[in-house]
Amino acid sequence: MPAVTAPDILVLPRVPRPDPSAAERKVLSVTTAPQGYEGEGFPVRRAFHGVDLAQLDPFIHMDQMGEVEYAPGEPKGTPWHPHRGFETVTYMLDGVLRHQDSQGGGGLITDGDTQWMTAGGGILHIEAPPEEIVMKGGLFHGFQLWVNLPARLKMTQPRYQDIRRGEVSLLASDDGGTLLRLIAGAVAGHEGPGSTHTPIALLHATLTPGAQLRLPWRKDFNALVYALAGAGSVGASKRPLKMGQLAVFGEGDVITVAADATQESRAPELDVLILGGQPIREPVAAYGPFVMNTREELMQAFEDFQAGRLGQIPDESHPGHDVF
Question: Where is the Pirin N-terminal domain (predicted)?
Answer without folding.
Answer: 43-147
